[in-house]
# Entry
Amino acid sequence: MIIVLRLGHRIERDKRTTTHVSLVARAFLADEVIITGERDEHALETVRKIAENWGGTFKTTYEKNWQPVVKRFKEKGFALVHLTMYGLPLPEVLAEIKKNANLLIIVGGEKVPSGIYKQADFNVSVTFQPHSEIAALAVFLDRYRGNLEAYTKNFGGQLRIVPMKSGKKVISAGKSR
Ligand code: SAM
# Structure
């Protein structure tokens, strides 16, 4: 099971970023995103609507504080993977991380509390340059799962894309449009 913990959401600054973190988590086959920080019904609803139309069992939940989330998943035996440019390079730690089937993947936004660095089993960098939690998550999930799974999974939604060399084709509950 793969859970993504998005730290410290701020309604004004992070609405698109948090939505995109969640959509990347879903598309790359994580099971759930837990958003901490400010409660933002709009961001939660946007992701839920997309998940409803496009299928699958992805869950979007909110909890104010990250500490109980980290404690809970540690107790359940999940490996805690914190994505940060200060961590060890992904290619160096990937094999070790792959030994774990249950991951809590933590991505930041505002300044990440030092407790996260200390409690993480793996502090992992995706390059040593500052970039984005959306990109770091996508690259990490792609490397961890192998991307074939993301291409072959049937989400079973009302909307489904028919891949084309040119043009756009979406099947909507049996009809194409
Ligand atoms: N100083 C931050 C850090 O620790 O990576 C950069 C802040 S960045 C605006 C927000 C989030 O993007 C970080 O908390 C981290 O999860 C992710 N991030 C940014 N650059 C990254 C990198 N090179 N490797 C892994 N994660 C990164």
In short: The chain is about 40% helix and 25% strand. The radius of gyration is 17 Å.
